[in-house]
Amino acid sequence: MYRIALHAALAVMLTLAVGGCGSKNKEEYEKPALYWYQKMMKSAAAGNLEKADDYFTSLESEHIGSPLIPQAMIILMQAHMDNEEYLLANFYLDEYMKRYGSFKNRQFAEFIQIKAAFYGLKSPQRDQKLVSDTLKKARGYIAKYTKGEYTPMVETIEVRLEMTQYLMNESIASLYERRNKPKAAQIYRARNERSWLKKEDIVPPAKGWLGWLFD
């Protein structure tokens, strides 16, 4: 009799547990697009970007054709940029451009990519390739969108990167000279000689690269 009662109690507990899980799962799935969007917005506003990313995944998975998706991508891109998570910001931008890359949208998206890369420069001396690649993108952007809405801002970024590259070349050349390697030093001096910038026009950073780049 005791065993029957014990089995009955366990069966009831198992039923409640399964029922509870079922209710929880039902609560987390098959929601309207606006539900996921609002959850994503609330999490992003609270600074919980990991949760915001999860809610976006639910929005995208359950409502792949929702008009809220492109707007959600831009919001998450900006949120990750503000949080200095530039790789994630670029991920959302890449996806945005692949899906919604009209001419006008591409202007904005490409501008944000350049801006994200620019602000991702923590130490230009260690990120020489990123400096070079971002500078090429900035030049390409200016050539493609000559009178674009965001072109003046990209031009500012380009000038800052040109100056950064000039100072890096100068620094590397000086290092080679101190190590008695004049030929190597001349390679970097020659690069600066081809630049439209002049050494006397550039004031080296006094408070570190980041402050100098972004002020």
Automatic annotation (TrEMBL):
Annotated signal sequence range: 1-17
Pfam families noted in UniProt: YfiO
Keyword Metal-binding: no
Domain Outer membrane lipoprotein BamD-like: 34-185
Keywords linked to the UniProt accession: Signal
Protein name: Outer membrane protein assembly factor BamD
Native organism: Hydrogenimonas cancrithermarum
Gene: bamD
